[in-house]
Amino acid sequence: VAPDGTPAVNVPPGVNFYTSTNDANLISGFYTSPAQFASMQVTSINNQRPFIAVFNQQHVVVVSGGSWHHDDNTGWNVWDTVIYQDPTAGADLELDGSRWQNEITDMVIGSSATADAQANFDQYGDSVRVRGSLQRGPYQY
Amino acid sequence: MRRVPFLALSLLVAGAVRCLADPWSPGGECRPEDQPKYDQFERAVRTASPGSTVYVPKPYPTTDRQVIQDFLYQYKSLHRERADPKKLPKGELPLLQGILDSTVTFTVQRAEDWTLGRCGKEERSYFFHLIRVFDAASGAEISRVTLRESGLWTSKSNYFSGAPFPPLPDPEAAMRKVAAAYNIQGDSPQYVVSLGGIYCPWSVPCLAFRQGDDVYIYLDSPFSKSSNGLFKIAGAEPRFVLKPGQRIESVHQARASALRTDGTGQGQLFYLGGTTWTIARKVTSPPGR
């Protein structure tokens, strides 16, 4: 690996080669609808499969979980935080849902772990809100 | 054990250094056409009610006490006392217990936001409030939290693994070190958060300073010793501006082309805010130093 890192396209084959994962793909936030991008992330974590997220196309972290709550007053399912592992900054770091969506430009994620992302979105999408954000659904998947 | 009430916390907070100098940025202001949505977001935060996803009790806090009020409200709203402890982030229980029992103290400092979120999809935020949370009895630092300019919670990092948080670089000491090692006399030091090739995360911001038109970023992290050093953004360094419809690959290509042209081959892509990137180059010590 060059001193200033490796291109993002090299990450999925690396994951497939060095881990038990064999279906890792690089997904660009630029070419993917925000709803689909987010639903794939939530679905993968719900299926207990960590994924790699990329800050600003330059720094990768591994997402291992997150938190959400159901607001009884509004009926919303609020995405609160993301928990990730950062090789540079430490373990079990947390970022709120809205800032997470601002900073993540790409991800490397398993196809099988996200197969039911659209079904999850269809079922829950309209009720999801994000902490720190004004975004309102329904979104285009 | 004596419990430290919030009044005592405010005394400690009052002594904290909030701002090192008048804040500055190396350029890359947000796009004027985005200002209406940023204004709309600010209005929404200022008028939000409890239960809203953007509610804080003290919108756009201006004092340390207000910053801490916003943090405590948002943290308590997560109701982590009801969660399965096994599913909480590592190191969460001391923080949770300390907040619920009021046995923690706080300091608040300012760090400039040089991430993509500075000119975000909904919100403009030029800086963070960096809150350091300490156990009042032992004085040990147990968490670092950032809120953005609006007071909305952004990040959290807990102590848990036996190694303390890396200290924030002391501005005066760092400037002396830089002067001795590199023969550079800078001014206006400030903490910055940047998530690019020069990685200055929320919990461990870097120190940035200026010398004339040049900007320097001083990175001294125990987590990334191979990446540590002093980086320079020369005033004359080219700026790469993302045009509508372009994505970040284009600025990566522009960087590679610039490095090929000048023959150096070395330089990190560095985000300046808005749609603007540039190149930051590692500074080598002069011979004999």
Describe this entry's structure for a reader.
The complex is a heterodimer of chains A (141) and B (289). Chain A has helices spanning 11-18, 34-46, 97-103, 117-124, and strands spanning 24-28, 51-55, 59-70, 77-86, 90-96, 104-110, 128-130. Chain A has 141 residues and is an alpha+beta fold. In chain A, strands 1, 2, 3, 4, 5, 6 and 7 form a seven-stranded mixed sheet that branches. In chain A, β3 (59-70) and β4 form a beta hairpin. The radius of gyration of chain A is 15 Å and the shape is globular. The model of chain A has no long low-confidence stretch (mean pLDDT 89). Chain B starts with 5 loop residues before the first helix and ends in a 7-residue tail after the last strand. Chain B is an alpha+beta fold and 289 residues long. Helices cover 25% and strands 26% of the residues of chain B. Classes of the chains: A alpha+beta (141), B alpha+beta (289). The interface between A and B is large, with 45 and 50 residues.
Indicate the proportion of strand residues of chain A: 25-35%
Measured between the Cα atoms of the first and last residue of chain A, the distance is 36 Å
Radius of gyration of chain A: 15 Å
The percentage of residues in β strands of chain B lies in 25-35%
Overall pLDDT confidence of chain B: 87
